[in-house]
Design brief:
- This protein is of the alpha/beta class.
- The strands form three sheets. A six-stranded mixed sheet has the order 1-2-3-4-5-6. A five-stranded parallel sheet has the order 11-10-12-13-14, sandwiched between helices. It has a three-stranded antiparallel sheet with strand order 7-9-8.
- Helix 2 packs across helix 5, helix 4 crosses helix 5 and helix 4 crosses helix 7.
């Protein structure tokens, strides 16, 4: 039950679905440090619903609400990532359950960061992310993409000033830029095609060992990873030992190695599933290649193999599984939690 918390009555307005909210606006806890966005807070018994033009709607507990009112906010590198996560969840949420919930404490923030998109390792990737975001707003070639600067900046993990600079750089070669609207040029759509519509597409890549002597791997893929990706709206994923990929177009005999086809498929993928069971160097290479491109990765590993992983790999958040069905269920949940699913 939402309730008034002692603010001036003339500054309180009734919102039927929430009760009362405080119209005295403070800096956003997520993006206030670099964008200075002002938020409205719908106060409740145990916290508040925050409305931010950049981050969308997210929930905070009472201690975070006090920080908001004191003008405190997260560090920029954390705020950029969590702002993107909050915007993604806010845009796809149906009611209370889908929104980001922020609790006070370093551990709570670190847990949220595990689900948040990572900042691209290569800064030029931001240009592609913005271009793909504009392409996603156009229904057809030639359509004008109408956007809100704040929400586009959130999804691109950029401050508003940096987003505006990127948009100016994309104009006039890749886009024709107007006031919060843009039309992709022929060269712009060609660049989108080169990227394979990665940010909004339905392609996935699976990096894992294909050791035929380990029956866990077949079960993980056929009964775990593949059906999980299908359930989340992806086309059948690309794995290097799938039969349909064994013969290249030039007719040469298939060789189990990383080649240009695999790297091109990673480039075109929205997400890369990395299974560290029977961990091999080619899996590490493919995962690192995806990370360098700023592509989302979800790591998994059989419980029996976790202790044998390299130290730095063990530090990565992973779905630790024992049965393929468990892997499928948890992978679906993780993909949806990160806002990567193509279906609700």
């Amino acid at each position: 039950m939402w309730a008034v918390t002692g603010q001036c009555w003339e500054q309180l307005h009734i919102v039927p679905q929430f009760g009362c909210y405080d119209a005295c606006m403070s800096s956003c806890y997520l993006c206030g440090g670099f964008d200075g966005s002002r938020v409205e807070t719908h106060t409740g018994a145990e916290g508040a619903l925050v409305e931010c033009p950049r981050c969308g709607r997210y929930d905070v507990d009472e201690r975070v609400l006090k920080k908001i009112r004191r003008g405190e906010h997260l560090a920029e590198h954390e705020g950029l990532r969590l702002s993107a996560l909050a915007r993604r969840k806010s845009d796809s949420a149906e009611g209370f359950e889908g929104r980001l919930r922020i609790r006070e404490g370093e551990r709570a923030v670190q847990e949220l960061l595990k689900a948040a998109p990572r900042l691209p390792a290569m800064r030029a990737t931001h240009f592609d992310i913005v271009l793909l975001g504009l392409a996603d707003l156009a229904k057809h070639v030639g359509d004008v993409s109408v956007f809100k600067t704040e929400s586009l900046a959130a999804r691109a993990m950029l401050p508003k000033s940096a987003l505006n600079a990127v948009l100016r750089e994309l104009h006039p070669v890749l886009i024709e830029l107007g006031q919060e609207k843009a039309r992709l040029t022929h060269d712009g759509w060609r660049r989108v095609d080169e990227l394979g519509g990665r940010a909004t597409g339905d392609k996935a890549f699976v990096a894992m060992s294909f050791n035929e002597g380990d029956p866990r791997l077949w079960g993980a893929y056929e009964a775990g990873i593949r059906p999980a990706l299908t359930e989340c709206g992806f086309r059948p994923p690309f794995r290097v030992d799938d039969a349909e990929h064994h013969e290249p177009s030039d007719g040469e005999r298939f060789r189990e190695r990383i080649d240009d086809r695999f790297l091109a498929m990673i480039r075109a993928s929205r997400v890369v599933i990395v299974d560290a069971t029977d961990f091999r160097l080619n899996v590490a290479y493919e995962a690192g290649f995806a990370e360098g491109l700023g592509i989302e990765r979800v790591w998994t590993c059989h419980a029996a193999d976790v202790s044998g992983l390299p130290f730095d790999t063990r530090q990565i958040e992973q779905i630790v599984w024992e049965e393929p069905e468990e892997l499928r269920e948890r992978l679906v949940a993780r993909i949806k939690r990160r806002g990567l699913s193509r279906v609700l």
